[in-house]
Each structure stands twice: as structure tokens, then as C-alpha cells.
Specification:
alpha/beta; 3-stranded antiparallel sheet; 8 helices; globular
């Protein structure tokens, strides 16, 4: 079975090149909606999971976050993040299912296009709840299950794998096909209260789409 969480060790350079070129010419609506849901983060402690090269961490620092930890499961992305944000953030190897920090450490968990590479979200929800302080919350940007059903689907053992070409076909990312009931699972409902949900069409996935391709979820620890 392919370890989809580690694919960025192979595609990371092309992914970052395509991302930077694409968004140099247009607004990143996913990041915009995440920042709207985060509201005032001045003085807050944040952990960004699936940090990539740290682009979002720079924005959180600019908006006054007091302490930021950046985590990624890809050794390539960790190397790039340390180059970009090593002076303003604690950068470490880790993942949603094993967040390498103490209990009740952060006010906010963020993740932009990162949690959907997991096969199941229950352990991730438990870990996010564990590292959040009482009353803390998460904001996640994720593929929309509606849009995913319109993408190319491959079979991988018992899984269906979504294959999404990005940035003019420069790179293709792969992740398990998920449903809304998996995202809003019993574990989610037990541990978190939903505070915000928005769907939108992410242009670089498929220009001209009429169904949502991405969603932003905000939920507070119970």
C-alpha cells in the first residue's frame, strides 16, 4: 500500500515551484478563508500541521501569533521549512496521528491541505484535542468530497485514491477518497463543536468546475 503521507519527498520541489508560480498571479482563496475563520490570532500559540515550506507560518507571525510550531511528515518539506522559517518557528517532523508536543500546549491547530492524506481521521481528532488548550480550536482547509468524486480515481488495495493534477499538470497529488461522514465522524462530534464551514471552488484544481473542490472547517474543543 502506497504511503501517501510521504509522497512529498518525491514531488515536493515541483509542488512548491508550481504553487509559488500559480499564486504569484492570483489570490489564494483557501488561505483567505482560513485567515477569515482564524480571526484575531495576536498573542495566540499555533501549531501548523502539514506546514510545507512554511508560507502560512510567515503570515501567522505577521498577524501577531506569539508562538508557532510547524510540523510536517515529509523530510523534504521540513528541510525547506527550516530554510524559510527556522528563525520564527519551531520546525519538527511529525503528523496528525502523532503530534510531537505536550498536552494542552496550543490555542489553535491549523492545517492547509494536509489531513486528507490519512486513511482515517479518528486518531488525528484525538491528537488535535489532546494538544489544544481548553477552549482551543482548529481551522483546516481540505478537499471537498463532492469535487473529489469528479476527479480521476485509482484503486490501491482496499482504498480508492483521488488523483489531482495541479498547476498545469506540473505535479499530481494523491490521497484517499473520503466522505463528509468521515470528516464529521463520531470522534469529531464527541471531541469538537463545529463553528464554521465554507465550500468553494479552488481554481488550480479544475478551471470551470461548477461543484465545490475545497472546504474550510472550524471546530472548537469541547
Amino acid at each position: 500500500m502506497m504511503n501517501l503521507k510521504l509522497q512529498y519527498n518525491q514531488i515536493g520541489e515541483n509542488y512548491l515551484d508550481g504553487q509559488h508560480a500559480f499564486f504569484s498571479k492570483r489570490e489564494d482563496w483557501g488561505r483567505k478563508l482560513m485567515l477569515e475563520m482564524l480571526l484575531d490570532i495576536n498573542g495566540k500559540s499555533i501549531i501548523d500541521i502539514g506546514c510545507g515550506d512554511g508560507t502560512d507560518v510567515k503570515e501567522y507571525k505577521k498577524r501577531g501569533a506569539a508562538a508557532i510550531t510547524a510540523v510536517d511528515s515529509s523530510e523534504y518539506m521540513i528541510k525547506e521549512a527550516r530554510k524559510q522559517i527556522g528563525g520564527i518557528s519551531n520546525v519538527m517532523l511529525g503528523e496528525y496521528e502523532h503530534i510531537p508536543v505536550d498536552d494542552e500546549t496550543f490555542d489553535i491547530v491549523t492545517g492547509r491541505y494536509s489531513m486528507h492524506y490519512l486513511d482515517s481521521f479518528d486518531k488525528a481528532y484525538e491528537e488535535m484535542s489532546r494538544v489544544l488548550k481548553p477552549g482551543g480550536y482548529f481551522v483546516l482547509l481540505l478537499p471537498d468530497p463532492v469535487g473529489d468524486t469528479h476527479m480521476k480515481i485509482e484503486k490501491d488495495d482496499t482504498r480508492q485514491i483521488v488523483c489531482v493534477p495541479l498547476y498545469g499538470g506540473k505535479v499530481t497529488v494523491k490521497y484517499p477518497l473520503h466522505s463528509f461522514s468521515q470528516y464529521f465522524s463520531d470522534s469529531f462530534l464527541r471531541l469538537f463543536a463545529l463553528e464554521g464551514f465554507k465550500e468553494f471552488i479552488q481554481e488550480e484544481v479544475e478551471p470551470g468546475f461548477i461543484v465545490p473542490t475545497a472546504m474550510v472547517i472550524k471546530a472548537r474543543k469541547k
